[in-house]
What we know:
With 257 residues, the chain is an alpha/beta fold. The protein has one domain (43-256): SGNH hydrolase (Rossmann fold). The protein has 14 helices and five strands. It has helices spanning 4-25, 35-43, 45-50, 59-64, 81-84, 88-91, 107-112, 114-117, 132-136, 144-160, 179-187, 190-207, 215-218, 238-256, and strands at residues 75-79, 97-101, 125-129, 164-168, 210-212. A five-stranded parallel β-sheet has the order 2-1-3-4-5, sandwiched between helices. The longest helix has 22 residues, at 4-25. It is globular.
Amino acid sequence: MIxxxxxTYFIAYLLFTVEAIAQQAAPSxxxxxxxxxxxxxxxxxxxxxxxxxxxxxxREANAALAAPKANENRVIFLxxxxxxxxxxxxxxxxxxxxNRGIDGQTTSQMLVRFRQDVINLHPKLxxxxxxxxxxxxxxxxxxxxxxxxxYATMAELARLNGIRVVFASLLPxxxxxxxxxxxxxxxxxxxxxxxxxxxxxxYCGTNGLVYLDYYSALVDxxxxxxxxxxxxxxxxxxxGYKRMTPLADDAIARALK
Length: 257
């Protein structure tokens, strides 16, 4: 029989051992070399392991959405936080535009939910604004070729389902507002953003899609996102979305013509 004091020590030892094993088994994210990104990725481990595409985000909204009316030009806006934060009803009043943006997502995650959040909603047109988080490595390192392949897959899936497509350029970024902005800027090299935008423009031209050039309208003389159009260097503010709205309207009109 173990003495009471010995039993206490024994239980403490067991608890310590179990905790040590749990810590060793707990999932961890490899370091990117950028503290802010590492912290953000660690905060999303449950998403990456339990619902990578975040299908749960719009499941109820999709189920409640009625089928398009006759002659309705339903448009789905698919993207990351830049789309997620865009209050479409305020900028496109009275238009059947549906926001399916999710903060922090990459194109790989958007492909996972493409059927539920795009195809099954029977839109006439799809507007995609994505890729900046891929470049930043939010869900892991991605080559330009990988990002481009995801775009091409979206276009092919849309075409098979009779959905017209607008591909929007990646937005410029700036590093002037905060330390976080400096990291966001460093994670998104201008050369990579511009290279993907060139590919998107060429792909749209070759495949009969509409290219929506936000970049040229938002960039300053230094190649950065105009400071007055963003509060954090990455996301448009109200003035930024106001600048983007007529460009989106024009691209949608051209795609539906």
